[in-house]
Design a protein that fits this description.
By secondary structure, the protein is of the alpha+beta class. It has 16 helices and 30 strands. It folds into three domains: 167 residues, no CATH class; 223 residues, no CATH class; 122 residues, no CATH class. The strands form nine sheets. Strands 1, 2, 3, 4, 5, 7 and 8 form a seven-stranded mixed β-sheet that branches. A six-stranded mixed β-sheet has the order 19-22-23-16-24-25, with helices on both faces. The protein has a four-stranded antiparallel β-sheet with strand order 14-15-11-18, with helices on both faces. Helix 3 crosses helix 6, helix 13 crosses helix 15 and helix 14 packs across helix 15.
């Protein structure tokens, strides 16, 4: 194996040569405390940076045994080390020439803790970090002395100050490990107790800003308080007994005046499908991992989705059993979003009236009188939300401030007042009884069969005139797939560039291995998930890359469904045979709801 001395000699030897002389760096280099792997060398100082890895043996990483005993603990540690690496690199980087010379960067995670390829911790305590460096240049010539400083001083400093337990602090590592394990244990309780979500007492839900997901810790920020009537207690492996609000399965409304915290609570619940790091404030805010945020999305494409349970025959006789359009309206896009989420395996839907189509949510008594049902193809959600739960076992958590008609169909109602929740379920039932709206349920039938969609593989084309497959991400809400750009700005639970890139690679995996014109969308999603579960995120790329992060089938489905070239054929199937009923929901919460 090449040594540091060999590396220094090589870099000094190529000083002043053409930049491509750096290609000789490819391979493995042995440092005293770690091994450096140079996997890809950039061809130009202005090109994408070089990809490298460092591996630390267990004795050098020096992680204590108790943070390695479970997958969840190691994941918490890896997330912390990746953040430490990113912060240390940012503080260490020195510009060392033209272009990207001197760059050290890693795909740092945000507040969410999920499997990723930037930093990985093995069961035996080994640590691997994958990152990018900008090899130094003068113009377009190799700068050997600067490269020596980059690799033997800068990289060495970043590794020693971020990946070794002694520099991070054993107690800080332990807190992140145990917190993540507790969050995973709490998430398991959701299924056992038939809850959609759990929000711990004292959680800090407010964020610094719309572009800063860190907790708002300023004076006056109100921690979450558990409302009487929805209080539950869980016993976690490390934190012990934790109290909080449990949202039972079924139909839940979050109501209250404007600016009182309704949407803040729902945003915390939507992000609760992922664990959060120690210190985030939402460590013990967890949600059904299959929950999907649904919104109206004017202008999106829809391919062969059966929205007939919500949208009947459209003007000019357009059927909706296999609805396709390049330019959906608010109501048709929201209907398609619900059906697509169920197809992807969602058992809970999260909806905020602020981002919903009003005519899809409700038609009040006056509008029913003015425009008879015969002239209105839309069956509003208020008339099908019970059927979603009772027939399909799909719960809904809905933020409302303007429509009391939903009180008639709710199982649970939480009112937010100055960011403090109260259980007003009994009051809501009294109000619904004393003030009947007189509106008629317009659902022609309970939600029955949805069509099964079979993607045409030729319509999912990752190629460009120059490449067999082109997958790029410029920001987390925009995915380039072949010659198409998939707009994902409305996919609220897609949280990082690494996750979006992994979704793109997952779509390529689905296309190359599982789409044959005979498999359904749900079958394809399950096969991709199974492949990743068995082989890890590295199955998504034939290179060893550090810029991938875990995604759910729901985000993969969102990308597929927004691919404007997608074409499908359809088959009709029925609902699940044994979906939970409302009575089952009430009997199995284990918390007296």
């Amino acid at each position: 194996m090449n040594t540091v001395d060999t590396l220094v000699d090589f870099l000094n030897e190529i000083d002043g040569q053409g930049y491509k002389a750096y290609k000789g760096l490819r391979g493995t280099w042995s440092f005293p405390d770690f091994t450096l792997h140079v996997d890809h060398v950039q061809g130009d100082p202005f090109a994408a940076p070089s990809r490298v890895r460092v591996t630390l043996p267990a004795e050098m990483a020096a992680l204590e045994d108790d943070v390695l005993t479970s997958w969840s603990r190691r994941l918490g540690v890896a997330s912390l080390l990746a953040k430490r690496f990113a912060g240390t690199a940012q503080a260490t980087v020195v510009r060392r020439g033209s272009g990207k010379s001197g760059l050290i960067e890693i795909e740092a995670p945000g507040q969410e803790v999920m499997a990723q390829t930037a930093v990985m911790v093995g069961e035996d305590g080994t640590v691997e970090a994958r990152f990018r460096i900008g090899l130094p240049a003068r113009g377009r010539r190799a700068c050997g002395p600067a490269a020596v400083a980059l690799l033997t001083t800068d990289v060495l400093a970043v590794v020693n100050q971020s990946l070794r337990a002694g520099s991070v602090g054993h107690e800080d590592i332990r807190r992140h490990a145990l917190t993540n394990e507790d969050a995973s244990a709490l998430r398991a309780e959701l299924t056992i107790r038939s809850w959609v979500a759990f929000v711990a007492h004292g959680a800090r839900l407010a964020r610094k800003s719309g572009v800063d997901d860190r907790p708002l810790l300023e004076e006056g920020a109100i921690p979450f308080s558990t409302p009487a009537g929805l209080t539950a207690e869980v016993d976690l492996p490390n934190a012990g007994k934790v109290n909080g609000m449990a949202i039972p399965r079924g139909v839940t409304l979050i109501v209250g005046g404007g600016y009182h915290g309704k949407s803040t609570l729902l945003r915390a619940i939507e992000r609760g499908v992922y664990n959060h790091c120690y210190g985030d404030g939402r460590e013990f805010v967890v949600t059904d991992p299959s929950a999907v945020k649904i919104r109206a999305e004017d202008g999106r494409s829809v391919a062969g989705v059966d929205i007939s349970s919500f949208i009947g025959t459209l003007p000019q006789g357009q059927a909706t059993q296999a609805f396709s359009t390049p330019n959906a309206s608010g109501s048709t896009s929201q209907a398609a979003g619900i059906v697509e989420a169920i197809e992807a395996g969602a058992t809970a839907l999260l909806i905020d009236e602020d981002t919903a189509a009003t005519n899809f949510m409700i038609r009040d008594r006056r509008m029913q009188t003015l425009i008879p049902k015969e002239g209105e193809p839309i069956t509003p959600l208020v008339d099908q939300v019970r059927s979603l739960w009772e027939t399909w076992g799909v719960s809904c958590v809905i933020v409302l401030g303007g429509s009391g008609d939903y009180l008639d169909v709710a199982d649970t109602v939480v009112a937010m007042n100055e960011f403090r929740p109260a259980d007003v379920t009994a009051d809501s039932r009294r109000v619904a009884s004393e003030l009947p709206t007189g509106r008629r349920n317009e659902a022609p039938r309970p939600i029955g069969a949805f069509g099964t969609r079979l993607p045409d593989p030729t319509s999912v084309d990752p190629s460009t005139p120059r490449r067999e497959a082109e997958i790029k991400v410029f920001k987390e809400q925009s995915l380039v797939f072949g010659t198409e750009t998939i707009a994902l700005s409305a996919v609220a639970q897609l949280v990082s560039r690494a996750q979006t890139l992994a979704v793109g690679r997952g779509l390529l995996l689905a296309r190359t291995r599982f789409m044959d014109g005979q498999r359904s969308v749900s079958e394809i999603l399950n096969l991709v998930a199974q492949t990743i579960e068995e082989g890890g995120l590295d199955v998504l790329d034939d290179r060893l890359v550090g810029d991938l992060a875990q995604f759910r089938p729901m985000e993969l489905a969102a990308a597929l469904n927004r691919l404007r070239t997608l074409e499908v054929s359809s088959e009709e199937v029925g609902p699940p045979e044994a979906a939970p009923t409302d009575a089952t929901h009430k009997d199995t919460t284990g918390a007296g709801f």
